[in-house]
From TrEMBL:
Pfam families: HOOK_N (PF19047). This is Calponin-homology (CH) domain-containing protein. Residues 1065-1077 have a biased composition (Polar residues). The lineage of its organism: Eukaryota, Metazoa, Ecdysozoa, Arthropoda, Hexapoda. CDD domains: HkD_HkRP (cd22223). One of its GO terms (molecular function) is microtubule binding. GO terms for biological process: cytoplasmic microtubule organization; cytoskeleton-dependent intracellular transport. Residues 9-123 form the Calponin-homology (CH) domain. It comes from the Eukaryota. PROSITE patterns: CH (PS50021). It is found in: Cytoplasm. Residues 228-389, 435-620, 710-866, 948-975 form a coiled coil. GO terms for cellular component: centrosome; cytoplasm. Residues 1001-1133 are annotated as: Disordered.
């Protein structure tokens, strides 16, 4: 036996602490007995493997046999886990017998430690290992280090468990220790087995001796003869078996010799086949090379097509990338919406939970309200009763006060008239006093009786109130029970329907089972027949094998046979798979049948429980009805008793009044002797007695009747008390019944646990049956495979002869083909050289394509990088765009302002155009005057000097006006520099066009002008030529604000043609070539300014009366319209 300290150290060790951490309730493992029971270890094993192979671990309750079974089941499950799931071999296993019988011994402690080590190894290597690792992490650091050391003992050191991966690394020392351990275990188990056999033999010998002592010698002789006969039979059978064995061994030796001979032949055939194969391989190699070259050429074409496809796909990839980014953004939006919806869902769930809690609290409050209403009704009833009692008591107190006053007055009267009265009067007075005392006592007794009755009535009323409360509570319970009854009825109907459906399913499954069993029987019978037939066939095949082996000379057959064997093996595998599928279907069907039967049993149990509850409910209803009937009877009896009490009070009052009339005091009548003496001493009383004897008889009858009534009342009171006690007993009985129901419920739970244990045992039986079924199925498959192998061998041997002959023919044909192929090979070699050259060229082109492809990939990568940069720049540009949009909005506001200003300017422009037209008309008038003056000057030489002065004045005035206008133009030009440059675009284009037109016109006008002046210069003097030159320079091309101005009307060609014609015909009409405005319906004038043009201002004309008037009008118009000139740089009007 191990010491207490050893057990405590083991319990405080790392393995037990880990086991406690794995349990849901660590307080379950407190003592070593809890560990030695095995239930706690099995629970942890169920966490490792929820569906173990072996079941049946039950609390042992100190039973060693149950402990042995528990530990045997646990050890078997651990072993199956290591062997099947972890593919490891357990070398050291704990002894389940020692753990069951002697758990507290040192060897038992070592076995327990080994068991926990193996369990820890399973937990660390199982699929649910993460859970156990988290449990280990919750422990202290020292415990974790110890557990790691324990895990290394199981997984790394190969003393307890052998891993499949470490077979080669296993050292000789470890192997030697394992072998020593196995030898020791073998010797130990041999000794145990020998001891058990000795005990059995000793028991058998003792039993035989006893039988020999009891049986006679004649019986022994008969038995010995019988045994001798059996011995002879067995010997004969042995001889036969030996002979069969010798025959079979001889047949085996012969077959071995034949096999060796066949092997030699096979080796020869293999050598020949190898030579042929080498030749065929060489030809195949050349063919393969040709095919490979052709395939490569095809591949090159395919590769070119693929390259074009990839180039097309590159464009698609960019589109797909943009699409993917859009989808990602949509996905982000959807995720955000999903999160929002999840938050809303969580809120809705919280609200739903809160609503459920509120509904539960509302139901509780409703129940409390019902209870309070009941209490209020009871309190109101009590108050009414107390009011009634109070009124009765006040009436009684008033009556008692009146009676006491009356008695005192009566006593005073008797005292005053006592001296005068005679002896008879004294007697009468004494009798009356006694009668009064008796009356007082009677009243006192009546009051006591009434008080008792009232107390009894109050008690009964209180009980009645309590009963009414109980009645209301019971009525509420009845309502609840009725609702439960309805629910149960509904549940019952549902269960009945489910039971019916389950019965139908079970019937169907039973029919299926029967059909499957019938099919299995048919199959087994057919298989047995096939087996017999195949055995016969095997014998025939063995005979044919001997013949076929002699004929099997070449290897081709065997190779064909091997290929066929492989195909047949595939068929066998397929058939095996189909058989396994069918067996799995059978197992599923059986499992479904078992599940349906279990469900049926559960449903029947539920039905029985429901029926029991319904019966109980009906019993409670009956009891409730009985209570109601009893309550009605009690109520009626109470009312009758109250009436009887009132009648008795009236009778007692009548008696008192009669005694008062007789003059007998009530106190004296209490003693019978004194009462007789007083009555006999008084003749008046005798007379009165005689007179009222008849009345006494009636009173006696009344008294007897009253006594009977009192007795009845007492009986009724006793019956009521008994009924109350019975009701209390019934209440206690109901409470007991409730407690019994609770106990029954616990018993039902225990029965359920028992049923579960039974289920576990049934599962174990089912597993055993399944194991048996698998073994039988394996036997069946083995027989099938043997039969198929025999059939295949027979077919192969039959076909062998045919194939050998065909092989010879094929070999000869192959020789001829090889000769032809050798010729074709030479041609193929030439083609091969050509194809090599083609291949090299294709290879170079392929390499170029690869390089191009790599370059494209690099370009693609760079493009990707650039696209990323572009995206970044796009984001930046988007930001800038937003800022620009803001600026654009501001500019739009400015544009709106500028448009309003433009409208104002257009109005000013229209006014300027009107001014321009008036100026043009004025200029025409001036030119007309100028031409008239010229003509006049040429015609009239006498008035030349006066005209010359006039012209000089005009020229001076015009020069002044020109200078003023130039100054104003320069001022406005400086102002226009501050304006935006947008206004120059349209004007600049027009200015370029007008420069060309103007330059041509100026050149033409200059030519014409010089020609005219040259013609006219012959007739004039030098002074006149100077005036003409000044006029030509100042007046013909001089307009306000310009150095040189051309007035152009219409097309250039017309003007030039007119100029030429006029210059040839008339010299006087030369100025009109440049400005042909003398026609009334001519085209609009065009003014070209070399520097700048001022519109909207009229020049000061010369001092003539007509011009002054027109100038005044124009100045007045200018004052009306206002100073709104429009300036154009190199502009045109």
């Amino acid at each position: 036996m191990a010491s207490v300290t050893d057990i405590e150290d083991f319990l405080q060790g790392p393995l037990v602490t880990w086991l406690r951490a794995c349990l849901d309730n660590s307080e379950r493992l407190t003592d070593y007995e809890d560990l030695a029971d095995g239930v706690v270890i099995y629970e942890v094993l169920l966490l490792i493997d929820p569906e173990p192979m072996y079941h049946g671990v039950i609390p042992s309750l100190g039973n060693p046999l149950q402990r042995i079974r528990n530990f045997d089941c646990i050890i078997k499950n651990i072993k199956t886990l290591y062997e099947e799931e972890l593919c490891q071999l357990v070398v050291l296993l704990p002894d389940s017998v020692r753990l069951g019988k002697e758990p507290e011994s040192k060897a038992g402690l070592e076995d327990m430690q080994l068991l926990l080590l193996l369990l820890l190894g399973c937990a660390v290597q199982c699929p649910n290992k993460q859970r156990f690792i988290e449990h280990i992490k919750t422990l202290s650091v020292e415990a974790q280090h110890c557990i790691v050391h324990c895990i290394k003992q199981v997984t790394e050191s190969q003393e307890i468990v052998l891993c499949g991966d470490h077979e080669k690394s296993l050292s000789q020392e470890q192997m030697f220790t394992h072998i020593q351990h196995l030898i020791k275990e073998r010797d130990k188990y041999l000794q145990v087995w020998i001891g058990q056999e000795d005990r059995k033999c000793a028991g058998v010998v003792m039993g035989n001796e006893r039988l020999n002592a009891t049986t006679p010698s004649g019986g022994e002789r008969g038995e010995s003869q019988h045994l001798a006969v059996e011995l002879a039979d067995w010997k004969a059978r042995l001889r036969k078996q030996r002979q069969e064995l010798e025959e079979k061994s001889e047949a085996l030796a012969e077959t071995k010799e034949e096999l060796e001979h066949n092997k030699i032949l096979v080796a020869k055939l293999r050598n020949e086949m190898q030579d042929l194969k080498q030749q065929a391989r060489a030809s195949k190699a050349y063919r393969d090379e040709v095919d490979a070259l052709r395939e490569r050429a095809e591949r090159c074409e395919k590769l070119e097509g693929e390259i074009t496809r990839y180039r097309d796909k590159l464009c698609d990839m960019e589109f797909y990338k943009s699409r993917v980014e859009e989808l990602r953004q949509d996905n982000r939006v959807l995720e955000e919406t999903r999160e929002m919806l999840e938050e809303q869902l969580a809120r809705a769930r919280k609200r739903g939970d809160h609503i459920i809690q509120l509904e539960a609290s509302i139901l509780q409050y409703k129940q409390t309200i019902n209870d309070l209403v009941l209490e209020r009704d009871a309190n109101q009833e009590k108050l009414q009763q107390l009011y009634e009692e109070n009124s009765q008591l006040t009436i009684l107190s008033k009556s008692q006060l009146n009676n006491s006053a009356y008695e005192s007055d009566h006593l005073e009267d008797t005292d005053t008239g006592s001296g005068d009265n005679s002896l008879s009067e004294q007697l009468t007075s004494n009798a009356q006093a006694r009668a009064l005392r008796l009356e007082l006592e009677n009243r006192r007794l009546a009051s006591t009786v009434e008080s008792l009755q009232e107390a009894a009535l109050q008690h009964t009323n209180e009980q009645i109130l309590e009963l009414e409360k109980e009645k209301k509570k019971l009525s509420l319970q009845v309502d609840d029970l009725e609702e439960n009854k309805r629910k149960l009825m509904q549940h019952n109907t549902e269960l009945e329907t489910s039971v019916k459906n389950a019965q139908r399913d079970t019937k169907k499954m039973q029919e299926l089972l029967e059909t499957l069993q019938h099919q299995l029987q048919i199959q087994s019978e057919s298989l047995s027949r096939d087996k017999q037939r195949l055995e016969r066939r095997v014998q025939e095949l063995e005979a044919s094998l001997d013949v076929a082996k002699a004929q099997a000379d070449r290897l081709g057959e065997l190779e064909d046979a091997k290929s066929k064997i492989a195909s047949l093996e595939r068929d066998v595998g397929k058939l095996k798979e189909s058989l396994e599928a069918k067996s799995e279907m059978l197992e599923k069907l059986t499992c479904e049948v078992e599940m349906n039967s279990k469900e049926k049993l559960d449903l029947t149990k539920n039905l029985e429980e429901a029926n029991i509850q319904i019966v109980r409910y009906h019993e409670r209803e009956r009891e409730f009805k009985d209570l109601e009937s009893r309550y009605a009877i009690d109520h009626k009896t109470l009312s009758v008793l109250q009436k009887d009490l009132v009648a008795e009070k009236l009778n007692t009052q009548q008696l008192k009044s009669s005694l008062d009339k007789l003059g007998l005091p009530v106190d004296k009548l209490s003693d019978p002797d004194n009462a007789l003496d007083t009555i006999l001493s008084r003749p008046e009383i005798l007379k009165m007695v005689r007179q009222r004897l008849s009345l006494d008889e009636t009173t006696k009858c009344d008294l007897s009747h009253l006594n009977e009534c009192n007795a009845r009342l007492e009986v009724n009171i006793s019956t009521l008390q008994s009924q109350i006690s019975s009701l209390t007993s019934q209440l206690t009985a109901l409470q007991l019944a409730n407690s019994q129901l609770v106990a029954e419920k616990e018993e039902v739970i225990k029965e359920l646990e028992k049923v579960q244990t039974d289920q576990v045992t049934l599962q174990a039986l089912h597993e055993q049956l399944s194991v048996q079924y698998e073994s039988q199925r394996n036997d069946k498959e083995f027989l099938k495979t043997t039969l198929r192998d025999l059939r295949i061998e027979h077919r192969n041997l039959k076909e062998a002869n045919e194939l050998l002959s065909s092989v010879n023919e094929t070999l000869t044909a192959d020789k001829d083909n090889l000769k032809d192929e050798s010729k074709s090979l030479n041609n193929l070699r030439a083609e091969h050289s050509k194809l090599k050259d083609d291949f090299r060229s294709l290879f170079t082109s392929n390499e170029k394509l690869k390089k191009e492809y790599r370059a494209l990939q690099e370009e693609y990568k760079s493009l990707r990088v650039e696209s990323g940069k572009c995206k970044l720049s796009l984001t930046e540009l988007n930001g800038e765009l937003e800022t620009r949009n803001d600026k654009i909005t501001g500019l739009e506001v400015q544009v709106s302002k500028l448009t309003s200003q433009c409208e104002m300017l257009t109005q000013i422009k229209t006014s300027f155009e009107e001014d321009r037209r008036s100026l043009m008309e004025y200029v025409r008038q001036l030119l007309d005057q100028y031409h008239e003056l010229l003509m006049h000057s040429l015609d009239d030489k006498e008035h030349y000097h006066a005209e010359e002065k006039m012209f000089r004045d005009k020229v001076n005035n015009l020069n002044r006006q020109k200078e003023k206008l130039e100054e104003k133009i320069m001022e406005h030009y400086f102002k226009l520099e501050s304006c935006p440059a947008k206004k120059k675009s349209f004007g600049a284009t027009l200015v370029k066009r007008m420069r060309k037109a103007g330059s041509e016109l100026i050149s033409k006008s200059r030519k014409s002008w010089h020609e005219d002046t040259a013609r006219k210069g012959t007739d004039s003097d030098t002074s006149l030529e100077e005036v003409r030159s000044r006029q030509a320079d100042g007046l013909s091309l001089g307009t306000p604000g310009t150095r040189r101005t051309v007035y152009y009307s219409g097309d250039e060609n017309n003007s030039t043609t007119n100029d030429q014609d006029d210059s040839k015909s008339l010299p006087s009409e030369t100025p009109r070539t440049s400005t042909p405005q003398h026609e009334p319906a001519g085209p609009p004038l065009l003014v070209y300014n070399r520097l700048t043009t001022v519109l909207g201002r009229n020049p000061t004309p010369p001092h003539s009366p007509a011009l002054s008037q027109s100038s005044k009008k124009q100045s007045s118009n200018e004052s009306k319209t206002g100073p709104n000139p429009v300036w154009f740089e190199y502009g045109c009007v």
